[in-house]
Every structure is written in structure tokens, then in C-alpha cells.
Amino acid sequence: MSSLLVVLSAAAAVAAAAASRGPDMMPRAAEGAKAEMTEVFKAVVTNGVEGFQPPLVDGGILESEGKSDGRGIQELWRVVTGGTPGDFNLYIFAMSWKAEWCYHQNFPGCKKPRSFWEKNLTIHGLWPDYGDGTYPTTCSSEPYDHDRVVNAIGLDVLETMWPNIQVPEEFAGKKYDSFWEHEWTKHGTCTGLSMEEYFSTAISLLQRRFLTPPQLAENVGGQTTRVDLEDAYGGEGMAVLDCRGKVHLNQVYLCLEPDPETHLPGEQVACPPAVVAHDDTCGQDSLDVAAFE
């Protein structure tokens, strides 16, 4: 345990120092720290470390992803680095099953779900990733612009396909936009795409390439199987399935190769082991497909 903490502390210190010099310096000055942190991350994911608590670092070299919904608690950690727009190895396209997100929740969107959400996945995000347990974040200071995005896509399409269920739709503007602003700032700025391209690309993936399969739409309130759902997305290893309580389907993650010229998502590929280790949390063959209460 002591050697683990020494490595974490040293790597975090180097990365924090690099981050203080600005995002453009982060990839170069912190490369050694990133490599060490990645190895630690892989060891923790693979073997576990009882009582492990990563140190806090300004700017967040380690990010907690706590998942708690009354069906069990998971707390996962990922190594986070700064980055350069367009410099990453794959996209993770994250889609959510909103009825599960709404389980025993009192959010406005859960009280008045749109009909589309009842039988379709919605967008959580389109995330650049290094594929090794790390990902770039906040790669530029370009602020989210509500008018640009809405003019390019349409407010109704965004609220349907990429909803913020925690805020009433009548609060259109800054408060409802907080989810889209978060996704752009944290992930979109690292894609190398324009703001309009980023949001329209994610919408297109959901509308045209990865329509919700019948294995979900026809089993709302019942069950599907892991094998059937994986087959719908190309077979074993082609979809990472996130569950609450190991059996309640919550999210589906797909991995896509970025085009080196345009930075747009290209061919779907099997997600690398580090992504599977972190995000695949469904531990049963039969999976519950929640319906809105």
C-alpha cells in the first residue's frame, strides 16, 4: 500500500505541475506521470486495493465515478489528463436507458418522460478516449454557445435525444443547458470537431447508425439477455454494458475509431480491455429492462 501511494503522489504532483502551465503543456510534461498513473489504475481495476483512496489533485488527475441508486453502490476511479484537440485513440459513444436512470428518482424528466424515452436509448455523451484507462478532458477554453447548438440542431431534437432529466424543460437556457455545456467542455473540446459538428454527430449516431435494437424496445418492463444485446451491436465484445446492481441495464457503450483527418467517428471496433474493465458492470446473463414507474 505504501509504495502504491508513493507512485500516486509522485505522478499526481508532476501532472498537477504540468497542468498549472496550461493544457498545451500537459501531454508532454506529464507523460511520465500519466504512464505511472495508468499502470496504477490498471492494477487497481484488475486486482483491487482494499481501502484505496486516491489523493485529491487540483484539476483532477483522478476522477471518481460513484454510482448509487439504492440497488448497490459502485465507486470507480479513472485517470484523467489534459489533452490536445483531436489527439486521442477512440471514441466512446455512451447511450442511456432513461427509465433505469429514473428508478426511485424524483427528477422532473422522470415525472414527465417523453414517449421516445420509453422505448429508446438516449445520448449520454460522445467521449474521446485513449483506450488505456485514461482520457483527455477540457482541451480548450472555447465556451459552450447555446444559440449555435440550438440553431444547428433544434431544441426539440436535443431535448428528446440528449435530455437533461434533472431540469424541467421549461427552464430552457442556461439551467437546462448545464448537461450539454458539461459534455462540450469536458469531452467535446477534445474531439477536434466544431461545436456544431460535435452535437450533430452524436445525434446522427443515435438517429441513423445505432438505433435502439428490438432486444430493448420489445422487452420494456421485462428482460433481455446479454448475448442478444451484444449481437444487436455486432457480437461479443462490441458493446460494453453498464448495469446497476449487476442486472439492471443502465447504459450501453460503443467504441468507434476516429477518422485521422476529419476527427469524425468511423468504424465501430471492439472496446479495449481497459474500457471493458472500467465500464462493463453487468454481471448476469439475463438483464432487466426497466419501464418508467
UniProtKB/TrEMBL annotation:
Family under the similarity heading: Belongs to the RNase T2 family.
The protein's name: Uncharacterized protein
Gene Ontology molecular functions: ribonuclease T2 activity; RNA binding
PANTHER family: RIBONUCLEASE T2
Pfam families noted in UniProt: Ribonuclease_T2
GO CC terms of this entry: extracellular region
CDD domains per UniProt: RNase_T2
Lineage of producing organism: Eukaryota, Sar, Stramenopiles, Ochrophyta, PX clade
Keywords from the UniProt entry: Signal
InterPro entries on file: RNase_T2-like, RNase_T2-like_sf, RNase_T2_His_AS_1, RNase_T2_His_AS_2
A biological-process GO annotation: RNA catabolic process
Keyword Electron transport annotated: no
Signal peptide: 1-19
